[in-house]
Design a protein that fits this description.
mainly alpha
Length: about 170
């Protein structure tokens, strides 16, 4: 066996026949990652968002919701600032939120793609917000329909949600 390396007789790796260790693939950027980048890159865009939209983003699961809440805090305190300064302000507390350091790293690694004008960023963020609203509507519809017999109020709400879903899809 001397000089044969780790490759075993049975064609396997090492003594156990395992495959060689692999690096985990980098995490693919999500819509929320892109929205986080847009909010950080275009802080005036964040400041111009209606409160309901900022609340929707801050209400997302970790780490994104915590990131958007931190953006709100920092921009409320400092006004519009450069992305590097915003991320530097968030970074010291990032270790307290599961996944936030990795999100900050992904945001720093993003590059401007296509049109980086504020109008294009606004359209892109609006598309993300539409998608999040559509998910929320579909989730509520699913809950109502899985609940069994529907009361008149539940039937009315189902109609409202179906209309809202159609409006969001048409936008």
């Amino acid at each position: 066996n001397a000089g044969r390396g780790k490759f075993g007789r049975g064609g396997g790796w090492g003594d156990r026949g395992d495959a060689p260790p692999r690096r985990p693939p980098p995490q693919t950027a999500t819509r929320l990652d892109r929205a986080a980048w847009l909010a950080a890159r275009h802080s005036p865009l964040w400041l111009a968002l209606p409160e309901a939209d900022r609340d929707l983003l801050a209400g997302q699961p970790l780490p994104h919701g915590a990131f958007f809440a931190a953006v709100e805090r920092v921009l409320h305190d400092h006004g519009s600032i450069a992305m590097a300064a915003l991320l530097d302000d968030i970074a010291p507390d990032a270790d307290m939120v599961d996944g936030l350091p990795a999100l900050l790293q992904r945001i720093r690694a993003f590059h401007d793609v296509g049109d980086s004008a504020p109008e294009a960023a606004e359209e892109e963020l609006a598309a993300v917000l539409r998608h999040l609203r559509l998910e929320a509507v579909n989730d509520e519809l699913k809950l109502i329909l899985e609940s069994g017999d529907l009361s008149p109020e539940a039937l009315a709400r189902t109609g409202e949600l179906l209309q809202l879903r159609n409006d969001l899809k048409a936008a």
